[in-house]
Amino acid sequence: MSEYDPDNIFAKILRGEIPSTSVYEDDETLAFMDIMPRTDGHLLVIPKTPCRNLLDASPEQLTAVMSTVQKLAKAVVQAFDADGVTVQQFNEAAGGQEVFHLHFHILPRQEGVAMRPPGNMGDFDLIAKHAEKVKAALA
Ligand code: AMP
């Protein structure tokens, strides 16, 4: 497995070098909106410390991230009055990973509504409105 690349896009978000629409942070984790949302409210949870994915993460990183994943999963269900929530996580290119900093996708789901195809840039105003709904649910 390759080494962690400190110039990956999520590392740049953590350093404030590129913008993101964050909805939650604590000492160890950050949650922000996915720019290519596959459902309304699609967001990502990452550790603040470096690791590529599940294969090199420490137990401490995983514990912190999973706690935030649960917090945000509950928040999106409330914010979008969702019937369920999908959590996705990919490891290495062969496993579907494109950004090599550990992240969990959180996708609020409505009964009978399919996820949109991947790779389509979202509407930034709409993503910002969805972020506000998540933040209100967390408050
Ligand atoms: P994957 O590594 O396959 O889990 O995919 C990376 C995810 O990161 C995709 O859902 C992208 O839409 C998302 N993504 C890529 N760049 C950004 C960014 N700058 N801000 C927010 N989400 C991003």
Task: Describe the structure concisely.
The protein is of the alpha+beta class and 139 residues long.
CATH topological fold name: HIT family, subunit A
* Global morphology: globular
Radius of gyration: 14 Å
Q: DSSP helix count?
A: 3
Strand order of the largest sheet: 1-2-3-5-4
Broad CATH class: Alpha Beta
Helix fraction bin? 25-40%
What is the ordering of alpha helices and beta strands?
HEEEHEEH
Please tell me about this protein's structure.
The chain is an alpha+beta fold. The protein has a single domain (9-138), classed as HIT-like (HIT family, subunit A). The protein is 30% helix and 18% strand. The protein is built from three helices and five strands, in the order H-E-E-E-H-E-E-H. The longest helix is centred in the middle third of the chain and has 21 residues, at 59-79. The protein starts with 8 loop residues before the first helix and ends with a helix. 32% of the residues are buried. The mean pLDDT is 98. It binds adenosine monophosphate (AMP).
Compile the SSE list and pairings.
Blueprint: H1 9-14, E1 22-25, E2 29-33, E3 43-47, H2 59-79, E4 84-88, E5 104-109, H3 124-138
Antiparallel strand pairs: 1-2, 2-3, 3-5, 4-5
Bound molecules: adenosine monophosphate.
The site of adenosine monophosphate has 12 residues, from loops.
